[in-house]
């Protein structure tokens, strides 16, 4: 869009200067349309991915094109069948867990908690394991892939806090360099192979059984009760809003398929490419910015409605 602005002159006989200014209003209009349509389709079921936690310092798994950025993840089958993979996991977790433990909720987490209290959303289903939604104040949350802050014994099914296990790991592996490392989405860190081979793995304090983080590894199965809870939440919702996820993993993408089958509108807030781009209305913006703009628009609309109601009265 091109507009002309004329300067004001003191002498009316002087010829005004005309400036050409190019203004791109496409992005603004897209945001306004996105917010308008979304607010008419509430309450929404919200599905979040690693992108909502990226401003906390915990990076995403993929880049904006959906390309995997990390080292190959340990699969469920590898963890269960290969003790060296357990050494690899717990050694890397020994270094990486503190950064996830100490991360603070981002603006996006806090804004979603406020939107929950305004009944804008019905439920949050998160693919993240960092528990930042709960720490930000959200109460209706399903941790689809589990939670990194606790550990389960595969034999006696006893749960332990991850911090308690950290003490055992540090006691058994005093020679490991515990210097600060960069956070990872799954709470691990790079570790040389020769160091992995020396890692001593703690056993269950109750029965000496094998301990596993209470998360769903790649290749593992999401507990059926979480899937059922999430599907019921979608049924209670008028739309689906996906934030900060490329939806490359089917466990998240299937929510879009379920919503489409139920003729519920799908909305995406994500700065990069997603698997559902062709079946949804998308706002290409980061989670914090998008949610801040969304909440501001809702507050403005609420204030306007209140003012109009008072005037009418």
Q: Unreliable stretches, pLDDT < 50, 5 or more residues?
A: 1-12, 16-25
Mean pLDDT: 85
Q: Helix proportion of residues, in percent?
A: 25-40%
Q: How are the strands ordered across the major sheet? A: 5-4-3-9-10-11
CA(first)-CA(last) distance: 42 Å
Shape: elongated
Structure classification? alpha/beta
Structural features, described:
The chain is of the alpha/beta class and 313 residues long. 38% of the residues lie in helices and 17% in strands. The protein is built from ten helices and eleven strands. The strands form three sheets. The protein has a six-stranded parallel β-sheet, sandwiched between helices. It has a three-stranded antiparallel β-sheet with strand order 7-6-8. Strands 1-2 form a two-stranded antiparallel sheet. Helix 3 crosses helix 6 (162-172) and helix 4 runs parallel beside helix 10. It is elongated. Residues 1-12 and 16-25 have low confidence and may be disordered.
Quick description:
The chain has 313 residues and is α/β, with parallel strands linked by helices. Helices cover 38% and strands 17% of the residues.
Jot down its keywords:
313 residues; alpha/beta; 6-stranded parallel beta sheet; 3-stranded antiparallel beta sheet; 11 strands; disordered N terminus
Topology readout:
Blueprint: E1 2-6, E2 18-22, H1 26-39, E3 44-48, H2 76-81, H3 83-101, H4 107-117, E4 121-126, H5 132-136, E5 141-143, E6 146-153, E7 159-161, H6 162-172, H7 193-196, E8 211-215, H8 224-235, E9 239-243, H9 250-261, E10 266-269, E11 281-283, H10 287-312
Parallel strand pairs: 3-4, 3-9, 4-5, 9-10, 10-11
Antiparallel strand pairs: 1-2, 6-7, 6-8
